[in-house]
Amino acid sequence: MSVRGAKNLVPKAMVAAILGSEPSVLRNVPAIRDVDVVRGLLSLHGVEVTSGPDAGNQDGELVLDPRNVESAHVADIGMHAGSSRIPILFCGPLLHRLGEAFIPDLGGCRIGDRPINYHLDVLRSFGAVVDKLDSGIHIHTSGRLQGTKVKLPYPSVGATEQVLLTAVCAEGVTELSGAAIEPEIMDLIAILQKMGAIISVDTDRVIRIDGVERLGGYVHRALSDRIETASWASAALATNGEIYVRGATQPEMMTFLNVFRRIGGEFEIDENGIKFSHPGYDLNSLVLETDVHPGFMTDWQQPLVVALTQAGGLSIIHETVYENRFGFTDALRDMGAVIQVYRECLGGTPCRFGQSNFNHSAVVSGPTKLQGGSIVVPDLRGGFSHLIAALAADGESKVEGIELINRGYENFMGKLGALGADVTLV
Ligand SMILES: CC(=O)N[C@H]1[C@@H](OP(=O)(O)OP(=O)(O)OC[C@H]2O[C@@H](n3ccc(=O)[nH]c3=O)[C@H](O)[C@@H]2O)O[C@H](CO)[C@@H](O)[C@@H]1O
Ligand SMILES: C=C(OP(=O)(O)O)C(=O)O
């Protein structure tokens, strides 16, 4: 099965195209809902988005022409309220092109409160004015945004992207400290550099950006989706199987691959992808903490927990990125998994959530036989995890709300079928 461009890069690369004075070409774009949402938002702002010329758009090519960018009707943008987290990243590019932007209510997975205070502070620091209205947030500027010094209290991926997409065309130098350095951010920096930006990534999470007056277009192939790859790898462990993921790449998977090997999973890497397999004997339990890159990514946690229900002994998982990412374990318990969640920081260093009432640590006891059940998908990764559990379980399962899974997994029904699962859309 194949994995294409990363859900957490492609929509941002599409937004970056607004900054160009010429069209951009993005390849390896997956057919997922988050891409459709951004396509709709770009069209509302006058960016012409067309699919590539090859038959069936096999290469997943998008051409994005921003030469006629215009303000959109706030009511129209409101239609996209709750659809994804990407609308907030339109601010910098639209402030540069039009002097104003509007942020509707954001969507994304409900795995914590997900405030946007860092984003708004960043925009204010560049000189933008932020007005909170009943219908959303209006942001405007009367002149060119000014380069600034920003320090993030936590290495937020979105806020780092906010700084990058705003600083590249601001007047003067911007210095960001406490930056996130996820592979998707590095790929966004590569895209911006292709467009003409000057960005240096220094040691200790410091990024420096020299603002330029004009950016051109880019031609870029999106990096592969490391979360989808890890999801299928976890599915291979949970189902005692073997899955070859074409398009998976090793560098951004290194932390995951180490954990996969410690559990007992086997993998083989070739130039086209990675084959993941169950070793054929009992899996090992482990102690694991999610963290910002280069740590173990939070989005890998949910699928991996399902695999850990099949490992012998006690596994301890401490979630340090989101305060509320273990809700999906309720359904796993109903299916027979033995998982207990705790408010305390277990098995790792104390995190931001240690002194609060959030169940952000989990202990998984295995191996347990899972039974099919009726499941309602709570969020993107939780939903995929439930699918894996359903595949590993005895008997039939009914999974409701699968459209949430389309946000980040291209053609997952077709892929499950190709792996031999008996899946029917009711
Ligand atoms: C579309 C996309 O790329 N989503 C990814 C992105 O989300 P996203 O960019 O939303 O995640 P962040 O890195 O910003 O969030 C990390 C932490 O910072 C906090 N925070 C963030 C912003 C802010 O203004 N204030 C604040 O307190 C959040 O509540 C969270 O606890 O990175 C996350 C961390 O790798 C991933 O799980 C998501 O899949
Ligand atoms: C949390 C995720 O995404 P989003 O930020 O789009 O909700 C995810 O991809 O697991």
UniProtKB/TrEMBL annotation:
<comment type="function">
    <text>Cell wall formation. Adds enolpyruvyl to UDP-N-acetylglucosamine.</text>
</comment>
<dbReference type="GO" id="GO:0008360">
    <property type="term" value="P:regulation of cell shape"/>
</dbReference>
<keyword id="KW-0133">Cell shape</keyword>
<dbReference type="InterPro" id="IPR036968">
    <property type="entry name" value="Enolpyruvate_Tfrase_sf"/>
</dbReference>
<dbReference type="InterPro" id="IPR050068">
    <property type="entry name" value="MurA_subfamily"/>
</dbReference>
<dbReference type="GO" id="GO:0051301">
    <property type="term" value="P:cell division"/>
</dbReference>
<dbReference type="GO" id="GO:0009252">
    <property type="term" value="P:peptidoglycan biosynthetic process"/>
</dbReference>
<dbReference type="GO" id="GO:0071555">
    <property type="term" value="P:cell wall organization"/>
</dbReference>
<keyword id="KW-0961">Cell wall biogenesis/degradation</keyword>
<keyword id="KW-0808">Transferase</keyword>
<dbReference type="InterPro" id="IPR013792">
    <property type="entry name" value="RNA3'P_cycl/enolpyr_Trfase_a/b"/>
</dbReference>
<keyword id="KW-0573">Peptidoglycan synthesis</keyword>
<comment type="similarity">
    <text>Belongs to the EPSP synthase family. MurA subfamily.</text>
</comment>
<keyword id="KW-0131">Cell cycle</keyword>
<dbReference type="GO" id="GO:0008760">
    <property type="term" value="F:UDP-N-acetylglucosamine 1-carboxyvinyltransferase activity"/>
</dbReference>
<feature type="domain" description="Enolpyruvate transferase">
    <location>
        <begin position="3"/>
        <end position="416"/>
    </location>
</feature>
<dbReference type="Pfam" id="PF00275">
    <property type="entry name" value="EPSP_synthase"/>
</dbReference>
<comment type="pathway">
    <text>Cell wall biogenesis; peptidoglycan biosynthesis.</text>
</comment>
<dbReference type="InterPro" id="IPR005750">
    <property type="entry name" value="UDP_GlcNAc_COvinyl_MurA"/>
</dbReference>
<keyword id="KW-0963">Cytoplasm</keyword>
<protein>
    <recommendedName>
        <fullName>UDP-N-acetylglucosamine 1-carboxyvinyltransferase</fullName>
        <ecNumber>2.5.1.7</ecNumber>
    </recommendedName>
</protein>
<keyword id="KW-0132">Cell division</keyword>
<dbReference type="GO" id="GO:0019277">
    <property type="term" value="P:UDP-N-acetylgalactosamine biosynthetic process"/>
</dbReference>
<dbReference type="GO" id="GO:0005737">
    <property type="term" value="C:cytoplasm"/>
</dbReference>
<dbReference type="InterPro" id="IPR001986">
    <property type="entry name" value="Enolpyruvate_Tfrase_dom"/>
</dbReference>
